[in-house]
Amino acid sequence: MYTVGNQIKESLRLHQGLRGKSATEEAIALLEAVGIADAPRRLNESPHKFFGGMRQRAVIAMALACDPDVLIADEPTTALDVTTQAQILELLAKLQAERDLAILCITNDMSMIAEVCDRVNVMYAGEIVETAAVENLFAAPAHPYTQGLLASIPGTQSSTQRLRTIDGEVPTPTEAATACRFAPQCPKAFEECEQVHPQSVAASTDDPDHTVACLLYPEDQDPEAEATSRYGEDPQRQADSADRTAGRTTALGSGAVPSTDDPHPYEWDRSDEGGGTLVEVRDLKKHYGVGLNLFTPSKVSAVDGVTLDIQRGETLGLVGESGCGKTTLGRTLLQLESVTSGTIRYDGRDLTDLSAAERRRWRRNVGMVFQDPESSLNDRMTVSELVREPLDVHDWKTRPERRERVRTLLETVGLQPVHYHRYPHQFSGGQRQRVAIARALALNPEFLVLDEPVSALDVSVQAQVLNLLADLQAEYGLTYLFIAHDLSVVRHICDRVAVMYLGNILERGETAALFESPVNPYTISLLSAVPTAEPTDETARLTLRGSPPTPRDPPTGCPFSTRCPMKVRPCGGRSTRSSGDARAAAGRARPPTEPHGGSGSASSVLVEVGATLAARRRVHRDGLPTLRTDGDLLAVVQVVVEPEGETAEGPDDYPARVAGERVFRLDATRRVSVAGPGLGLRPVVLVR
């Protein structure tokens, strides 16, 4: 097996002439430079022993082996969870500052571009269509394609609105570029766009470095007015432009969902009542037995005591870092994995008690869209064969009816008859995911597990798939378990969210409440790490350090205790479990309802107070409790409550007046705000 060290030393040997001990020392130094702990030991390990973020760090170390001037980062954070992504971006920024690197960052993540880039080139069909400083591009995009990309980002629109999409298909590389390649998809296209290939020109006289390849420029008026003048006063120009998209009546991303009133006769007995709980999970555990031999048995606690409910017709988001057990939980709910202990009830029926025949019948009512359609779809089968396979396995009706069902399903997800006999490798990523969705819908299920369905798609295709999922849910009353690491997507599509860490649900609640007022320290850390598509956003981020503990040897007590930035006392004494409330959390920290002083700070720190404040405080004449934190966040601090015209009435009154508050946020001014029942928002000063 080729170790990580061998791969780094190969470059050192070929290009730097280093061998033996000198090559090993340099390889160790590179691993340490990219933040890999215990580098001498990890140097001799194989890549499969590194988790996703650590593998990315090792690849960066390999790229730095020859001390380059330019580093090409090709999708450096794709498919990484938000906390790992934040660590990698922080590492790249650190290396750039230390080594004076120029970095070419290739990505389809517009939020990442806003976070780390200075200038942006927007590429479409092999051509650069727009170039600008990142702030100018996001503030005033010129090319219609750029405008469409930015409008497709979840979070820029209300969660109740459909995402904007770029309809149609990207032209193939074999097509000659004799005209604007974006014209068939462009809502602002006019006749000349289909005849002339545009050249790059300045988008405005105020910024000559902002260039765009579009026939709407240069102009003396705004692009929309110019487009109107070129179209004349024809009120049908938008419709005509749509008609030029090759006559597609169910174009990709259109979200059109033809009605199919064809339930199959073998479906599970469903409740006739709308709403209610569809899936009930109680203390579910899934452990895998591992061990070097019979005398050293061990287990991996992939799912460790999960309790949750999924309501009929809702979308429950399941978020967390890679390896926390999200996919295993989804597979276990569908009985693709056996249950170690606990119960799963579907529409009131205990699935762990089903016979083999009953389980086969029940499975017709559930489906799963897997994370990677490239590997989950058999490349030796045509699209129609792939979608028909579940119907064949379950002997659904007659062969002609199955063929008709396949045609209906493919039309439902926005694919054309010309696609039916093609193979998966002939499709784009978004089209393959549509095939996977059609296959999951084949037996008319009621419950779908969607495992990272849009994680590898660019924002415009991602918007198409999310709109499609919302249309299908509205049309057929589907219930979704939506597994994802992109929290902006989760916020857009999900009704409720459950946060998972090391096999445990640490927090769950309504989407709006959880995003606006997270309770658990881990949730706070996740949300803090989410990049925004706003280059001017200078909100301080709370970046988690290290990686989660191994499920083979989880910590005692709170599973997050080894990384918690808000731990102020030993959290290993007891396990934390979320209750069954609608707004449940396993942690003990809660942020203030709003920051003090308006603008954020670049050095925010979170300090937990907790419900047992009275037992740990020293009360002075004006009510001064002393708090102690673990780690290097703060030393001993004192919290001074300024009563805004009131006078603290003594030790007995103080605990009642602060009951319910949890977290203080310290900024550079050393002033924060504290919220509590009956308190409103009170200013607080933190003093060492």
TrEMBL record:
Residues 548-557 have a biased composition (Pro residues). GO terms for molecular function: ATP binding; ATP hydrolysis activity. PROSITE patterns: ABC_TRANSPORTER_1, ABC_TRANSPORTER_2. Pfam families: ABC_tran, oligo_HPY. Residues 572-590 have a biased composition (Low complexity). SMART domains: AAA (SM00382). Keywords: ATP-binding, Nucleotide-binding, Transport. Residues 279-527 form the ABC transporter domain. It comes from the Archaea. Residues 220-274, 533-604 are annotated as: Disordered. The keyword Methyltransferase does not apply. The keyword DNA-binding does not apply. One of its GO terms (biological process) is peptide transport. Residues 231-246, 261-273 have a biased composition (Basic and acidic residues). Belongs to the ABC transporter superfamily. This is Dipeptide ABC transporter ATP-binding protein. It comes from Haloplanus rubicundus.
